[in-house]
Structures are given as structure tokens and as C-alpha cells.
Specification:
Length: 138
């Protein structure tokens, strides 16, 4: 068995693709279905042919509620502090900061939780992360 992808429904594909590109993913392919009035956008980690995120945009939808019912996606990152800093500098709220040098949670524009995990050993606690409070549910 091989993991292929996780699908999330999105309201604004441009905002959501930009968010995942900030995380370091690349767009691999996009399919627009005129008859069905939807688009599928597949994103993945560069150099890793493994699992992908499928973004489904239904052209006529008017907003999704309850993004938390999906759960979360998880990505391993080379430097959790650098990743969170880059996201924060680009307007992303860090819901659960990487106080422990190991784990953080952020949200996509459609309110999907994204877990970030430090590759390898935990990094030493560092400011401003060590004393930063949670900013919401994660």
C-alpha cells in the first residue's frame, strides 16, 4: 500500500496554493473540469514523489464551514523556527508555536490545521517561540 494524497476543499485556490508554497510545496498539476465546474490542484514536496495534497475547488460554492472536521496534514521541516518565521512574516498565524523546538500548528486560508514537525532531533528552545502563547485551537 502507498499513500497517494489527501483532499481538502478550498474556497480560494490562489490563496491556498500560495499558503502551501510558503510551506515549501510545489504545484505539480492542475485540472479544470468545465462540465463539472470544479478544479483539482495537486501539490507536493519538491524531490519527494510521495503523497500529495489535492485541493478541490468547486466553482459555485459560497464558503465551507467546519474545516476542523478534516483533522490536519503533517509535514516534516528542516528548521521549524525558520519555517514558522517565514510563515509569520507572510501573514500566517502560528496557532501553536514551536516552543519545544519540535512541533507547531498553523492554519490554511480555509481553516485546515497543518502540523509542522522538526526533522531529526528537537531544536533547543529559542525566543520568541519559547514564550509565545497559543493563539487559538490547533
Amino acid at each position: 500500500m502507498k499513500f497517494l494524497h489527501s483532499m481538502i476543499r478550498v474556497s480560494n485556490p490562489d490563496d491556498t496554493v500560495a499558503f502551501f508554497q510558503l510551506l515549501g510545496l510545489e504545484e505539480r498539476r492542475r485540472m479544470d473540469n468545465e462540465a463539472g465546474r470544479f478544479s483539482l490542484i495537486f501539490l507536493g514536496v519538491p524531490g519527494d514523489p510521495g503523497g500529495e495534497v489535492e485541493l478541490t475547488h468547486n466553482w459555485d460554492e459560497i464558503g465551507y464551514g467546519g474545516g476542523r472536521n478534516f483533522g490536519h496534514l503533517a509535514y516534516q521541516v528542516d528548521d521549524i523556527y525558520e519555517t514558522c518565521q517565514r510563515l509569520m512574516e507572510n501573514g500566517v498565524t502560528i496557532n501553536r508555536p514551536p516552543r519545544d523546538g519540535h512541533m507547531a500548528f498553523v492554519r490554511s486560508p480555509d481553516n485546515i490545521s497543518i502540523e509542522l514537525l522538526q526533522k531529526g532531533e528537537r531544536l533547543a528552545p529559542a525566543e520568541p517561540w519559547a514564550s509565545m502563547p497559543n493563539t487559538g485551537e490547533w
